Amino acid sequence: MSGGDAKKLVRSPSGLRMVPEHRAARSPFGLDEPPWVPDKECPRCMQCDTKFDFITRKHHCRRCGKCFCDKCCSKKVPLPRMCFVDPVRQCAECALVSQKETEFYDKQLKVLMNGATFFVTLGTSDKSELMVCRLSNNQRYLVLDGDSHYEIEIIQISTVQILTEGFTPGGGNTRAIGMILQYKVPGSEEVTQMKFTAGEDFSCNKKLSAAWLAAMHKVSK
């Protein structure tokens, strides 16, 4: 692990977190911990309106910071976007969101970091280059390697358009065959475009390319 990607274990009121030593190295998918609603400002559960007392205790959701009774905030769910080491207490609404995000972290992000092979066309050029495209380990850059090398910062990407084929007016399945990516060049307002095409005539796993494109579509959302 490079120095820029080094992490440290920190303890917050919500639990243990494994975070980057330098804030600039944090993942673009990360979330800051929310401020907790002060105890004195929540005499009742913010979901079911049950009054708190010595028997009915209050709990804070680690994702939204609101105050709930145990019944309304009983779920302990992984929260990778906040870098928690263990599952943390969340309200029912936040738990549903976090469960969907955990699937994204467990599946789509791994697909993106494993990479896939595409023909890449830069700008208005009529020439394409065979490149391996992957998400960097710190999730901050899209890395393209071939005869050329590019590193595109995720936060600089403005548009992701997935190209498909197979659609018919009467309905039918489509499959992802490519992508058009637009991003800003650091230090300027210039927008650069790249086109990614899953080739039909080279020995690459088409299912892998389609899965990578589908994961990239999830990222754009």
UniProtKB/TrEMBL annotation:
<dbReference type="InterPro" id="IPR038632">
    <property type="entry name" value="ZFYVE21_C_sf"/>
</dbReference>
<dbReference type="InterPro" id="IPR000306">
    <property type="entry name" value="Znf_FYVE"/>
</dbReference>
<keyword id="KW-0479">Metal-binding</keyword>
<dbReference type="InterPro" id="IPR011011">
    <property type="entry name" value="Znf_FYVE_PHD"/>
</dbReference>
<dbReference type="InterPro" id="IPR017455">
    <property type="entry name" value="Znf_FYVE-rel"/>
</dbReference>
<dbReference type="InterPro" id="IPR052113">
    <property type="entry name" value="FYVE-type_Zinc_Finger"/>
</dbReference>
<dbReference type="InterPro" id="IPR013083">
    <property type="entry name" value="Znf_RING/FYVE/PHD"/>
</dbReference>
<protein>
    <submittedName>
        <fullName>ZFY21 protein</fullName>
    </submittedName>
</protein>
<keyword id="KW-0862">Zinc</keyword>
<dbReference type="InterPro" id="IPR032031">
    <property type="entry name" value="ZFYVE21_C"/>
</dbReference>
<dbReference type="Pfam" id="PF01363">
    <property type="entry name" value="FYVE"/>
</dbReference>
<dbReference type="GO" id="GO:0008270">
    <property type="term" value="F:zinc ion binding"/>
</dbReference>
<dbReference type="Pfam" id="PF16696">
    <property type="entry name" value="ZFYVE21_C"/>
</dbReference>
<feature type="domain" description="FYVE-type">
    <location>
        <begin position="39"/>
        <end position="94"/>
    </location>
</feature>
<keyword id="KW-0863">Zinc-finger</keyword>
